[in-house]
Amino acid sequence: MLSDNKFNPKILVLATEACAYPGADAVGKAHLEYGANVYVFRVPSPVLFPEDFYLRCYAKGIDGILIAACGSDCPYRGAYDRLAAHIDSLTTRMKAGGLEIQRIRLTAICTVCIKAYLKEVGQLDEQLRALGPVNQSVAGQLQHLARARMRDQSQMSAA
Amino acid sequence: MESMKQETVQDSAIPHTPRVGVYICRCGGNISDVVDTDHVAEICRLIPGVAVSKVHTFMCSDPGQQTISDDIRQEKLDRVVVASCSPFLHELTFRGAVMRSKMNPYLYEHVNIREQCSWAHKHDPRGATAKAIQLISAAVGKLSHSTPLEKIRLPNHRRAMVVGGGPAGMKVAADLAACGIPVVLVERSDRLGGKLPILNRLFPNGQAATELAAKLESQVLSNPKIEVLLKSEVTTVSGFIGNFEVAIHGDFGPSGHATDIHTTVGVIVMATGFKPYVPTDGEFNFKRHPAVVTTVDFNALLSKQKGDARTFQFDGRCIRSIAFIHCVGSRQVDGVHTPAVDGRINTYCSRVCCTTVLNQALQVRQRFPDTRVYDLHQDIRTYGRGHEEYYTDASRAGVVFYRYHGQEPPEVTNTNGPTSPLRISVKDYLSWGEELEIEADMVVLAVGMTPGPCETLVDQLKLPRGEDRFLQEIHPKLRPVEISVNGVLLAGTSQAPMNIQETLAAAGAAAVKARAMFTTEEVELNPYVAEVDAHLCEGSGACLTQCEYDGALAMVEILQDGHTVRKAHVNAGLCVGCGACVAVCPTQAINVSGWRIDQYDAMVDGLVRDLTPTTI
Question: How far is CA B435 from the centre of its chain?
Fold first, then answer.
């Protein structure tokens, strides 16, 4: 049992409706356990999140994010490749901006990938405990920059 | 002004003060043995916007659902959260419950505190209780940003496409057309009938396969509601129930040249059939000796026998003995059988081969009394009505049986000797495992079934296949002819090895299911597609660069304050709701309805909200 003053990271799992969310269900159905600090949100495809969304999560105090996608089983055309590109770009900016890139993880979890799910959340949890709490103010600044960059790019291409 | 609008979107403050009802399910102890549900209800009462917070032993029961209905009326709730099992079990149940109380079903949120909480944190009740509270808080946050949504209604095209012109395809087409549904029947070969002509006498009644084929064919050809396309193949297919867009390439049309047809159908029936297993070179001496043939070849040989010879004839020779070997390409054993190119072995039973062998063996014994017959099997599975009689009759007719184990299949060698050209070595378990050698003039391999070609449709519609590579039904008992892609049905051996009787029964079921899909003039779809906030859209076109679906998204010119401006516009019927467009919008003007970014932001706010009683 964790003592109250020990750091307990908040982990957000963005799980695809077609694969990873039922995969997370399968872990519970098998009565296998992981930390209660892991929260799962269901998404059609995580490709929909703009970069600043992730940074906003950190700014609000989410310590780590696991994007649990469908991988090659993705029901949407091209979505997984685009998602991977988003996360690539996000990690570059996190690195440059001074936010640990271990706080984001992209993986494919299938509907019965119990072991993979446990391994991913377990490893992320371990890394986050080593890193300590997220620097919310750095994340907040990066979030504003990311949003501003999107606007600028759009205005440049319009001009 | 633009920046102000943008701020409103980014700000997760509650735009409307809702009255949320929160219901926590004990699930008869499945949840409440770990999660302190009473404490959860108590804390949730303190979340801004929550008007009612209650616990029930089984929320999905009638009294549980009634509680929600009563509260919607008496407490004037306009949003509802149920925290219970996985949404895959009961999200639709509770959506239905709120809908019956005249609440918009999309103002309902489901929270999973069983599979993803109580069951996964059994040894951390405190942690699980705290997690349940934060997840409910996230759902309440989302609901404060939810708006009523309406299902998308689209026309249901009253026309079916049947892929495959074998017995299953012909039966589906004939039955559907008899109900008045127009059918397009696509067949890749130049004739109808599929594999029927390779069969000879059909068990269990000995009817000629050609006779059955002719009957089914005349039912198809005599019905003007059926359009038969021979030498044609489906090249592209997309869409959804009621609205599948199909391109068919084939040799039709007045010119006789290959052309493409584009058409819209409401339902697709997969009657793509099977391919007989082809033994590999040298498997039981196949292709190493001309007198080693398959049961498919043997059917043809049987029908070609002429005159009243007392001995079976092959290649100008009298065949004095024939050995049948069961389970060739079926019930294969890992480590014993060589995998196919895709690395798989066929571990399944093809079901029809046992009766086929006995049917053929019996015909040989009855017509050619001077030809001896040996039967080498693992098991005899003559499971159908009237099938067991073939075994009894074959035994009486003097067929000699040997039984081998799957791990020790018989071996066939060329003897080149003067008496019999082939020798079979078998360890026989009808005796004490005696090692026997049988001399034979001919060996017949009872080949099983492998899935017929259907890759285009499988790839483009994402149809699931089973471990055996046959198409996979939703549920073997409850939904046996449906596949997880709504509007697509299975008929016959595209799904699994079946005999003719079972194939036609499955085809009949698929026809009825297909007919039932045309009972409404419109199909309803969840409203989870992209939506554009025209006030926020600045017409950058960034969304368009991400969209993979033709016609789902377009830029249109509209008149705004006396000026013509470009705005993104969504075609709800073609958008699949993947959200690729959402991530790149510079002004966050585009979202997926029901899964909006501001809703996710509000969920995160709810997740991190400090709900310890002292701080509220």
Answer: 45
CB B145 within 8 A of CB B602: yes
> Among B47, B25, B41, B39, which residue's Cα sits nearest to residue B125?
B39
Helix (H, G, I), strand (E, B) or coil at B262: strand
Among candidate residues B228, B216, B248, B236, the one with its CA nearest the CA of residue B185: B228
Of the candidates B459, B509, B464, which has an alpha carbon nearest to the alpha carbon of residue B484?
A: B464
CA distance B194 to B188: 10
Structure tokens at B183: 């059918």
Does A48 reside within a domain? Answer: yes
Strand, helix or coil at A28? helix
User: What phi, psi does B464 have (nearest 5°)?
Assistant: -80, 145
The boundaries of the domain holding residue A79 are: 11-158
Q: Which residues of B touch A40 (CB under 8 A)?
A: 112, 116
The Cα–Cα gap between B297 and B314 comes to: 12
How is residue B92 written in tokens? 């639709």
Residue A153 within a domain = yes
Q: Is the Cβ–Cβ distance between B402 and B325 less than 8 Å?
A: no
Give B481-525 pLDDT, tens digit per residue.
998 788 999 999 999 999 999 999 999 999 999 999 999 999 988
Which CATH number is associated with domain B160-273+452-522? 3.50.50.60
**Could you write out the DSSP letters of every residue in B370-394?**
TSEEEEEES-----STTTHHHHHHH
Q: Where in chain B is the domain with CATH 3.50.50.60?
A: 160-273+452-522, 277-449
CATH 2.40.10 fits B17-150, yes or no: no
Rounded-to-integer distance, Cα B231 and Cα B192, Å: 10
pTM equals 0.71
> What residues of B are in contact with residue A25 (Cβ under 8 Å)?
86, 88, 112, 115-116
Q: What is the DSSP letter of B190?
A: S
Of the residues B575, B592, B600, B601, the best mutation for testing chain A's interface (the one with the most A CB atoms within 10 Å of its CB) is B600
- Omega prior to B204 cis, within 30 of 0: yes
Q: What is the pLDDT of residues B381-434, one digit of tens each?
A: 999 999 999 999 999 999 999 999 999 999 999 987 667 799 999 999 999 999
Cα atoms in the 13 Å half-sphere on the side-chain side of B461:
32
CATH 3.40.50 residue ranges in chain B? 17-150
Smallest CA–CA separation between A98 and chain B, in Å?
22
Q: Which residue has the tokens 């209905």?
A: B69
Distance of residue B235 Cα from the nearest chain A Cα, in angstroms? 18
* Encoded amino acid at B115, one letter: E
According to CATH, what is the number of the domain B277-449? 3.50.50.60
**Segments in B443-499 forming alpha helices (H):** 455-461
Q: Is residue A4 part of a domain?
A: no
Interchain pair A56, B549: CB under 8 A: no
Using alpha carbons only, give the angle B101, B103, B105 rounded to the nearest 5 degrees.
110
What is the rounded distance in angstroms from the CA atom of residue A82 to the CA atom of residue B596? 19
What is the C-alpha separation between B540 and B532, in angstroms, rounded? 13
How many distinct structural domains can be found in chain A? 1
Name which of A82, A120, A68, A33 is nearest B34 in CA terms. A33
Strand order in the sheet with B267-270: B226-229, B183-186, B160-163, B267-270, B488-490
DSSP label at B306? -
Assign B173 to helix, strand or coil: helix
What phi and psi, each to the nearest 5 degrees, are found at residue A17?
-60, -35
Question: Helix, strand, or coil here: B423?
Answer: strand
Tens of pLDDT, residue by residue over B323-359, are 999 999 999 999 999 888 888 899 999 999 999 999 9
